[in-house]
């Protein structure tokens, strides 16, 4: 394996040898040589067909991972290498690879393929309403990879990891908003048909969160959304008298969902605001239960939610402190203060940014009422 630039497409057997050396050869020098050569291959125009062929052959886990990662990297960074007439064949090939995914397919490979397909959809203007095409093709047969693609699509758009112009980005966001009703129906269907499938339920919540985070799903009437209800059901679960508690990954997904909802709140969504406030207030018991069970990860999740609630409602907390009645502010502050009593510093540390923001807001406001309140307290 020479280190010079590739002038012609290497034989597939040589690629397999290099991949095997990278992952299995005990000799570090051989590993390094294989890594360098494969890096050169990935940067070459031959990587497109090599990756596609490796994925079709499915010889072993290592070659499939290398191929999926290469395909994603090429689409993300070197899409300009492909002529326009090759875009459709690349899309069809990726769709075919997605259709071959089953319950035994390694999740890392699935993620890379889904990212590749999402990045392609973002950069392929001729693929109109890609989301609807994907749902029509995979919703009844490949729920798992479909949910993954639909999750990473808004994330890739938001992360700006794909090199597209601002006009194209805005166009894609409008396209996602147009597809949102179909997404909502699909997620509802998934919830109703996969009640006991933990893995799928996690993906449902993550997908919903992803679409909400880019404002593709409207917040109007969203407090009736089945996925939001599911997220709170997971978080309010205390595990009393039950053999199995909520798995950590599912709890994380539910907490992320609620935090995202709070971050997206706007003044005109008062019904959603009160829904979130009232339901988060009920989580204090579950928080104490997580502390009693020494489940730090779940304690951290509750603390994140309580702190996000306080940061979201910060200006209203200050404005209520200016008036005579302060129960609204006190309830939220009490929740955050509860977290400060946790024995682990990392949990309490989650709240620190809120206290900084509160101090800054109080300093900036500096009204007579606030000064009087502080004087009474001290």
UniProtKB/TrEMBL annotation:
One GO cellular component term noted in the UniProt record for this chain: cytoplasm
Domain Importin N-terminal, residue spans: 34-100
Any GO BP annotation: protein import into nucleus
SUPFAM superfamilies per UniProt: ARM repeat
Protein name as it appears in the record: Transportin-3-like
Molecular function terms, GO-annotated: small GTPase binding
InterPro entries in the cross-refs: ARM-like, ARM-type_fold, Exportin-1/Importin-b-like, Importin-beta_N, Importin_beta-like_NTR, TPR_TNPO3_IPO13_2nd
Superkingdom of the source species: Eukaryota
Species this chain originates from: Agrilus planipennis
